[in-house]
Design brief:
Elements: E1 6-10, H1 14-26, E2 30-34, H2 37-46, E3 51-55, H3 63-72, E4 81-85, H4 92-98, E5 103-106, H5 111-129
Parallel strand pairs: 1-2, 1-3, 3-4, 4-5
Bound molecules: manganese (II) ion (MN).
């Protein structure tokens, strides 16, 4: 088997991190976690990741601001970012994509759809770097 794709989950809720991480690990991905944006950004700058799952509602630096910071840094600018948010309100998807996220999944997460979106974004990201 080829080397596992590396995914960073930035999510403040421990139960959600465990749930999201469990689904990703069972799908064969290598998962790391961060509980807030500052730790997540530091981790993303220190190690290579193939995809970032970004909670939008975070304490301190929120997920949209964190996405803009990652996009502004050459080291992390091209990593696909999949946003997850409880606020499935009209206009949210536009704001999320405008901030630089590549995709959007509303909570509660439908995991079949979530994992399909992860696979799609990883494929796009791989094509972009080859
Ligand atoms: Mn949150």
């Amino acid at each position: 088997m080829s080397e596992s794709k590396r995914i960073l989950i930035i999510e403040d809720n421990a139960a959600n991190r465990k749930l999201i991480g469990g689904h990703l690990q069972r799908s064969g991905y290598a998962v790391q976690e961060a509980e807030d944006a500052d730790k997540g950004i530091a981790r993303a700058l220190a190690e290579p990741f193939d995809l970032i799952v970004m909670d939008i509602q975070l304490p301190g630096t929120d997920g949209l601001t964190a996405t803009r910071l990652l996009r502004a840094n050459a080291k992390t600018a091209r990593i696909p970012i999949l946003a997850v948010t409880a606020h499935a309100m009209r206009g949210d998807e536009g704001r999320i994509l405008a901030a630089g996220c590549d995709g959007y999944v509303a909570k509660p997460i439908a995991y079949k759809e979530f994992l399909a979106t992860v696979a799609t974004l990883l494929a796009v990201g791989q094509a972009a770097t080859e």
